[in-house]
Request: fold
Amino acid sequence: MEFRFDKTTRETNLLFRPMAKEKKIKDEEASNQAKSKKTATKKKTVRKKVVRKKKIARKKIAKKKTPSFAEEELDDVKNDSTEDKLEYVPLKSTRAPEPEPEPEPEPEPEPEPEPGPPPPEEIDLAEFQNRSMVELYELGSSLGLRVGGMRSKHDIVFEILCHWGKRGTKIRAHGFLETAKDGYGFLRVPSFSFAKHADDVYIGSNFIKEYDLRIGNLVTVIARAPTGRERFLSTKEVIEIEGILAEDWESPTIFENLTAISPRERIILEPSDGLSVSPRVVDLIAPLGKGQRGVIVAPPRGGKTILLKEIAKSIVDNHKEVELLILLLDERPEEVTDFEESVPGAQVYSSTFDESPDRHVSVAELIAERAKRVTEMGKDAVILMDSLTRLARGYNGLISTGGRGRGRRGQGNSKGRTGSGGLDTRALPKARKIFSIARNAEEGGSLTMLATALIDTGSRADEIIFEEFKGSGNMEIQLDRELLERRIYPAINIPKSGTRKDELLYHPDEFKRIGMLRRQLAQRPGGEAMEVLIDHIQNSASNAELLLTGLR
Reply:
């Protein structure tokens, strides 16, 4: 039979195609329902088995238990009353119910005592900073603080103060104010040469604006422990400023607005016993006045440090009213220790040669600002600096490495011009600015600076630095290498040393005799003149006696 595909066959296929799909769907639904019924039947069978096992287990447990008298009586009544359908009613007690006892209040747990000594009412930050590491370790351990891994004394002090500060203890602190560009500041501790430490006290810009505080002001505050994201002890209240109560404080005239005049009052260096030769020579050859700006010019190993040390001793002994600030820059650590031991009672601020130029400059600038604040108060301040050469080198190193926000430290991004000797042209003006602050104020107060400068070092930079400051001072003491080789000390070159307008520092009669003495010394060669003067000083009790008797 021959099959032919025509239009009718095609329409028939199109008609039955959806019907075939519907049948397929129904078959699938039927198979799914059958499967679900089988699954449900299996689950029911499993549940029945589980229930049956539980009933058997309960019966076994009930047989093992011995029924009480009440349960046996209840079972008998139930068995006898199956026909009569009687119900068991338990007897009601006629006894009044006893009142339930009130629950006793639970005792409050006693607070556990904190480890270590109780927190004091008030503590002084400086007192803790002067303690030894052993004492701080013992105290921190007794308070339950983790101080074992702390290597710095200031970190331990900070943890102890925070522990007690959070428990209501007042923290009393004082220091010199150092401000930042954003207006806030920190109190730097003088005994650590203003170095930055963890226990420095933060002082907000609101206090600085309220009391018109300036860099170098001596401020006493009450501090509190840090809270939240704070990292430092913060000022809670300002107590004193420059020894004056905060409520009585009035900001003095700015230092730059004071009228500068020539020195008119002499700083007498001659010791009371008259035994030290160097200060007596300085009094006769180059007197030092209040407001003087002097330079001690010396070759290497010329005795400048020894001369500076003896001058410092004389100022401490003879002028208690003067605030003496000794500044040692880029110095050897052993020299700093020797200076502190040789001049007891003096404030020695230092930065050693292993520190960065930024550190040398910051110490020098803070000392200069501190001396300004003393002068503004109408008092006398004296700065003995060793040395101007190292200060200029510090500024040069700071500028060349791009320090203090000028760039990343260690990468030279200086845009200044490098002059002779490798000095940046901007370094010397900055050092000269610090040296130029010395002056005698007409309104009262004075700022005296006596600094050393190196020559004959073989460095072109040192020669340029000396020439830069040579004409800036009004007093100069020059040490002679030839006298040093002949073991004559102090090796002062008399013709090249002197003070401008020294007639203002002497009594008229004394000034006449000083002139006669210098004329006599000028007739002798330099080395012989110094030897003769030293010999007469050693054979006289005082400079007054020497001037009256003259040279023999």
Remarks:
- Residues 68-74, 76-88, 405-414 have pLDDT under 50 and may be disordered.
- Residues 7-64 form the longest helix (58 residues).
- The radius of gyration is 47 Å.
